[in-house]
Structure formats: C-alpha cells, structure tokens
Design a protein that fits this description.
Structural class: alpha/beta
Radius of gyration: 13 Å
Mean pLDDT: 90
Helix content: 40-55%
Low-confidence stretches: none
Shape: globular
C-alpha cells in the first residue's frame, strides 16, 4: 500500500486530504514544518510520494522541496491561484506536478497512482 507524505501546515487541509486518500487505500503520514520533515527523512524508509501544500509556508517551502528532491521522493505541489509563482519555483526544485486549488480529487488520485506506479517500475 503506497504511503503518502502530507507536507501541509493547515490542519483542516490535512484532515480533508487524509480522508480522501485513506478512502482509496492510501496510507498517510503528515508533517507541518521543516524540522518534522527533516526528522521523518532521517528514518530508513521513505514515503512513496509527497503532497506539498505551499499555503502558509512562505519561502521555507523551497528548502523543504530541496530536501524531498535530495531524498528522491517525488512530490506534487498544491497551490492556490495567488501562490502559483511560488509553486512554479517548485518545478525547479523537482516537483513532478503542480495542482491548483480547489483540488479535483479524482485528478489528484489519478496523478498519485501514475507517479507511484512509475516509481515502482
């Protein structure tokens, strides 16, 4: 069962995404700051994919994306329209894709499965 890392600051967004993903048999683990992400990435096994919501992180999101890239964890950036310029920088730091909020859940699930499946090959 794929494990998805939720890099999200806002508790409500974590709850909504976790419910949607777990309903489709995906396991979730969450972090809400850089220190928690660093701690998680010190463990011997890594998540299959990360969902990174740029809301509330500001410029620190860049270093978080760099950490994911260094550990070769594919990630999808979730962004409000007003944050697209910050999100587009995430492509430079290795984002597999950017999705604009509000997230269309069937599209997100399809993208997750495609990226996780590609990594398993």
């Amino acid at each position: 069962m794929p494990e998805i890392l939720l890099v999200i600051r806002k508790r409500g967004n974590i709850r909504v995404l976790r419910q949607a993903l777990e309903a489709h048999k995906l396991t979730c683990v969450e972090v809400s700051n850089k220190e928690a992400l660093e701690g998680l990435l010190e463990k011997p096994s890594f998540p299959d994919l990360a969902l990174v919501d740029v809301s509330g992180f500001g410029e620190s999101i860049k270093s978080m994306c760099e950490l994911l890239q260094r550990k070769e964890i594919p990630f999808i950036v979730l962004s409000a329209k007003r944050e697209l310029s910050l999100s587009s920088q995430a492509l430079y730091y290795g984002a597999a894709s950017i999705l604009e909020k509000p997230i269309i859940k069937p599209l997100l699930l399809k993208l997750i499965r495609r990226i996780v499946h590609a990594g398993a090959c």
